[in-house]
Amino acid sequence: MAPDPAMLDWEVGPKPEDGPWAPWWYAGSHASTGFGKGGGGPGASAVKGRTPLDPTLRPLLEECQALYAVLSRRALRPRSARPGGGLLSLDSGACPVHRGGTHEYAPDSRNDDTLVGMRDGVTGSFDQVWRPAATVSVLESGFLLGDGVWEGLRLLNGVVLFADRHLARLFEGAAGIGMSIGMTPEQLLRLVYATVDANAMQTGVHIRLMVTRGLKPTPYQNPKTTIGLPTIVIIPEYKEAAPGPQEDGISLFTCHVRRGPPDVQDPGWNSHSKLNCISACIQASAAGADEALMLDPHGFVATCNSTNFFIIRSHIDIRGERQCQVWAPTPRYQMPGITRASVLGLCEQEGIPCRELDFTVTQVYGADEAFVTGTFGGLTPVVRVDGRRIGRGSPGPTTLRLQAAYAALCLSEAERGRVRTLHVACSEW
C-alpha cells in the first residue's frame, strides 16, 4: 500500500477486517508511531485496553501464536528498551557465566538445541521439546509459589550416577509436601533416560529434574486448587565443573542467614523455594567469597548455601604421630547430600577417622583442611573462610585422597549400568 497523508486521519481503532491482532497494534505499535498526540489522528482518542477476543477467533489465535513468537523474538526495538541499552541474547556464548565456586562451568553451544523432557500434568502427555521453545505456564505452581522439589543428576558413560539415592530423596521430599508425583521412581527414571537418549548424550552431562505441583486456575496457595498432576521438567545439559576450583580451591564467607529447624521449613527438602540459601549466597557474593557458610540456630556450623561442608583437623597422638580426622556437621540442619553420604562411606572404606558433630567457626579457622561436596562439583577444596587461610591455603593431602577415591567411586557406579540402577530405584518404592 502506498503511503497517503490521508491515512493519518483514518478513524482510530480495530475494525472487523483487521483480524485478531488489531487491538494489540492500535494499543501499542500505532501509538508508538506518533500519528497523533493520543496515538491517533487529530482530535482522536487513544484505544483503551483490549477488546474481548471473539471465541470463534481463538483457534486462529492459537494457530498464529507460534509464528507470532518467532516474529516477536526478531522484532526491532530501541536499545533504550533493553537493560543497559544493549540487545540481549540467549546464545550460550553471550550469557553471563559465574566465575569461581563449585558451580563454575564453561558454556557449551550444543545446549542451544537440546531437547527438554516435559510431562504436562493436565493432559498427562510426555514430550521432548526443543529447548528454546520449552516453557511452562505463568500459572504453574513452581513459578507462582516455588512449590515443588528437584534433583541435580550427573550422567557418566550413559548412566545416571546414584540414581536410587536421588530418587529416594526426591520422592521423600514430595511426600513431605503432600505431593503425589503420579508415577513410580522407576517410571520417572525411564523418562530421564528417554530424554538424554533423545539428545544422544553419554557423559559430561548435568541434568536438572524438576517436579512442581502443577497448573493453577488462578494464583493461590492451596494445593487443592491444582489442575491435574504435577508438572515434570527434565533439562539435560552438556555441563561439567571447571577445573580451577577443583585444583585451586574456593573461598567461603560466614553469613548471618541461618539454616532453620524442620518446624520452620525442613532443611532436608530439596525444594524450589530456595530463598534461604539464595539470600546467604547474595551476602557471600557481596563479600567477595565464592559461597556462603551457614550456621544453625545455635551458632554451630551447618552447611553451605549449595553444598555440604567438611573440615579436617589433626592432632599428635601419644606416639608423636600426626593423626587426622574428618569432621562433618550433624545432619539436622542441612540437606541430606548424596555426595556427602558417599564421602562418609569413603572415609570408612579408606580408614580415615570421621565424625558427625557440632563444631564452631573458630574450629573451622583452626582446621588443617576443608572441602565441600555436591553432585555437580564432587569434592571441592576450601582454602579460605572469612578471609582467613585454611591450613596452608591450598588443597590438602586428605582432601586430594578423597577426591581421587570419589572419582573412582563414580566410575564404579557407572560400570553397574542402567539395569542395576533401575532395579534399585524401583525396589525401594
Automatic annotation (TrEMBL):
GO terms for biological process: amino acid biosynthetic process; carboxylic acid biosynthetic process. GO terms for molecular function: catalytic activity. Its cofactor is pyridoxal 5'-phosphate. Pfam families: Aminotran_4, Sulfotransfer_5. It comes from the Eukaryota. Keywords: Pyridoxal phosphate. Belongs to the class-IV pyridoxal-phosphate-dependent aminotransferase family. This is Branched-chain-amino-acid aminotransferase-like protein 3, chloroplastic.
